[in-house]
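Issue: copy button drops trailing tokens. Both records pasted manually instead:
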Amino acid sequence: MIPTVTLAGRRKAYKRIRLPKMGMTTWGLLIPRRRIATRIRELAREIYRDYRKILSNHEPLYLIAVLKGAMPFEYLLSAELHRLGLNIVFEYMGTSSYNNDTESTGQVRLTLDLTRAIANDHLLLVEDIVDTRLTLAYLLQLLGNRKPASLRVAALLDKPARARKKVSIHYTGFIIPNVFVAGMGLDCEQWLREVPDVLYLLSHKTAA
């Protein structure tokens, strides 16, 4: 069962930081780092059970991280998969759909493509967060047209309240409420990506 995170009892301020555009921001702790690490280990075991049935001897699983946010999740997940015995190859893709720091335009464009052909390879697309699902749908169509042997999705966070398309997520870390989040690769104005917890925005106050 996928863990569902709520805001119950989480209104206490955890971190304050002044950002260039938003001014002083206050963040709450949504998912602590230890819970994230535990959940990633669980996901890795699930992924390993599935892929060991379809990967031939020494055949790698291609983890395709969507930059920049998915990199911490990809690294932690790949380390667990390696420990379990899978061979991993990293690839990266970049997209953009944001016209400011918190709102998506709904129009997806590719900013970085793969470095190699992927026909007949087994792909796991790694996302930090899935919300509208527009980016995910775009990438799945793009990759599917290149004829991989298999194509699945792993997302650390799922925000179904924002969904605008029906897209399957095969491996989900947490279901979260409709709040703006940062940390674990997710940013606000390019800040906070390095925070090993998932934070959510409580308030911000722009300087006069």
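Record 2 (pasted manually too):
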Amino acid sequence: METIGPQLIHLVQLSLQKNNAKKVLSFLALFFSVLAVYFALYASMFASSEKSAVNAIRERKVSQTRNIMPPASLYTSTTSSFESVPFYRTIIDNNLFRPLGWRPPRPKEPYRLIGTILPKNADVSPNAILQTTAGNKTYIVSTGDKLDTDTTVTDIQPKQVTLEKAGQQRPLTLNPGPWLK
């Protein structure tokens, strides 16, 4: 390439002196077409060697990550215990992408059973711990206590309380969540 440059300049100077413009233009066209073919071949050689180098790097990275990754059996054994809906209840209840000021819909049941206290002694009455779903007030009640003007506790059993409102009895059961089974 270094020897072509000075020869080309010398030929252009000679042809301009002799007014052979057609010969100069045809020579330049031939020269640039040969130059284009040369660069195309050079670029294709460089591109193919670059692709092979990139593929070699990718294969090296893949082989390294295969050595780092734990076996797939570890994933299947641990995720099966988390597939229940109560485990994800916290995420569902506290969703970050809800609009500002969003309030959850008011539940149909105004009370939630937190726990029951059943004594071993028959002289002591059983107690239940109830919580309001709207205001998060906690009550410790026994059989016959009134929660509000219409609701009365009629029965306390292990993990269940029966409430009576307007003559209708409805049971409240203890929801243990995913951590207590």
